[in-house]
Amino acid sequence: MQTASIQSALRAAKLDGWLFFDHHRRDPLAYRILGLPDELQPTRRWYYFLPADGEPRKLVHRIESGSLDTVPGSKSVYSSWADQQQKLNALLAGAKRIAMQYSPHCAIPYVSLVDAGTIELVRATGVEIVTSANLVQEFEARWSEKQYELHLEAGKLVDMVLREAFDFVGEKLRCKCEITEYEVQQLIRRKFSQNGLYADHGPIVAVNANASDPHYEPSLERTAHIQTGDVLLIDLFAKLTQPDAVYYDITWIGFCGDVIPDKVQNVFSIVRDARKRGSQFVIDRVAQRASIAGFEVDDAVRGYIEQQNYGEYFFHRTGHSIGTEVHGTGANMDNLESHDERLIVAGSCFSIEPGIYLPEFGIRSEVNVYVGEAFARVTGEQQERMVHL
Questions:
Q1: Do 133 and 162 fall into the same domain?
Q2: pTM recorded for the entire structure
């Protein structure tokens, strides 16, 4: 656990401390940030207060008094509910403004993990509670140099598998053989396994109207045939099967035929250009050493699509944080589903993936953007033209 770094961040944020709380492993962020062991399975509530200055303090139940023995700090033990409340007051003595895994109005669901009753209990001690969202990003969303390298390595392999999937579809169409979305999905999963890649679900392989459902996934029971004249969307994401590996997540579009209909081509061009505006906005702002909030990236992308009169058909955020989970805990590029005011921090990565989802077909184009110290870059191949199949 990075005690000194966390305390420095607390002082910079003018906070008196950070209170971690859990019961039955409801808050995975606490376990990762504090470095608590995987085998810890608490059935009683524990509290860990990390002050901006001084020694950390623990409050644990008598039945599970060793719950927090792997982290530094003094320890108090409670058994009754009254004892808990009294010692919680002592735990927070002297603190006026603290952070918890809480988000006002649940604006950032990835961080809003402490239940409302516990928030009420802690507020009853007289402290003000603010969101830990920026602190979480600081200590959870930043990649190490090794993770960045693993991301780039995974990206090369995922890009290769994507090309192989499109080639497979093209071959089937040329020989007039039947092929389904599900077959392509399973081919990708086999290729992932062969290349040392892991994904906890997916990928998305969708044609026409199915591609207008951003979270559609084919299955053996629910799949469409891929035929000449179809728009084909493939959204695939994976990470290397190595400790602390992080995801690479992209979406490309193909067309099954030689002549792309004007409407399809026009929508693809709008989505592609919106994606490029988003990534270039980030690259330029980082080069200027200007701060960027997640909602600003969404505005840059969404604003362009709205100018083209397709705003109502772009109904999800522009992008999400990427980490050891495909949807990470850093800033999202979002001013639709939430107003994400978190600043993008150096060492973090996120997707930019605008889409236009019409009743008859959907188009999405996705890249990953990594922000380093005074630079930002798209980390993999970028689609400029629809793939002809």
A1: no
A2: 0.92
